[in-house]
Design a protein that fits this description.
single chain; 246 residues; alpha/beta; Rossmann fold; seven-stranded parallel β-sheet; binds fructose -6-phosphate
Amino acid sequence: MNNLRILKGSNYQEMSQKAADVIQAQLTVKPESVLGLATGSSPVGLYDCLVKAYENGKADFSKVKSVNLDEYQGLSPDNEQSYRYFMQKHLFSRVNINIANTNVPNGLAKDPQAECARYDSIIKNLGGADLQLIGIGHNGHIGFNEPGSEFPVGTHLVSLAKETIEANKRFFKTIDDVPKAAFSMGIGAIMSAAAVLLVASGKEKAAILKEAFFGPVTPKTPASILQFHRNVILAADADALSQFPV
Ligand code: F6R
């Protein structure tokens, strides 16, 4: 695929630095960038690198606007497991971003349909992301676009797949505490980003990465749609790339 650029790190730290360098370059070229942001284990290291860059005067977030991929339904912003909380903790409170310019779906929205429409109009009014950061689930999900029979286009309320609840239970006291539904940006918004930066590390991501980029394009593997994106950067460590046919 000639639309895929691979940044290989020998380990998580190196991968994180390379991914952070991409975001830093984006901010240098366009300080008023719209960044699509992700949560989970994969981007924690790169957020740390971005914070360091900010502290050293090498990254400026003052004009940045952001849209996050997703949020658990039912969790408030001050719930430690919410994605809004995650973003505050790992990035927003540590750099000079204007919180008013950051967007995460409202997990407490009473009317899910209205919340999805609201979020889509935010993305539309921002003109889409200049750079969309994503991770990949073991089942191939991007955002919380779970495997299914079609690619969901807009923001939607998702019933989380069993594998996702299982994978995310590590962040909760018990598996029963993991929310069963989440708001997720749709595949349409991810695909309309000017560039997509996917971060993945560890052996447990190797099989799904190979399937996503070299298997058939199918909603059964949501990340496979990236084969049709014109500008994908994959920052991964050697373990995650261990099944790549290169
Ligand atoms: C997070 C998100 C998810 C994660 C994916 C991988 O905002 O939308 O798609 O990127 O589940 O999670 P980690 O990085 O924890 O393996």
